[in-house]
Design a protein that fits this description.
By secondary structure, this protein is an alpha/beta fold. The protein contains 3 helices and 4 strands, in the order H-E-E-H-E-E-H. The strands form 2 sheets. Strands 1-3 form a two-stranded parallel sheet. The radius of gyration is 12 Å and the shape is globular.
């Protein structure tokens, strides 16, 4: 994944990056959110800590935490 679209401040955090994302709900947004999370999981220097979400975002968070 190309990280050029990430905010400048995020690219210059100490490594490894520890993210605590919040995921939104609402149909197609849930699918988009999972695509972003999946791409972040492919990055070796990014760790995902706590996750929160609503609706479809909560389902994505549960899948992420359980490894489903």
């Amino acid at each position: 994944m190309d990280l050029k679209g990430l905010p400048h401040a995020l690219l210059h955090l100490p490594r490894p990056h520890n993210l605590e994302p919040g995921a939104q709900g609402g149909g197609a947004q849930g699918a988009f959110t999972w695509g972003v999370v999946d791409a972040l999981l492919d990055q070796p220097d990014i760790e995902i800590g706590r996750v929160s979400g609503t609706s479809g975002g909560a389902l994505n968070g549960a899948a992420l935490v359980t490894g489903s």
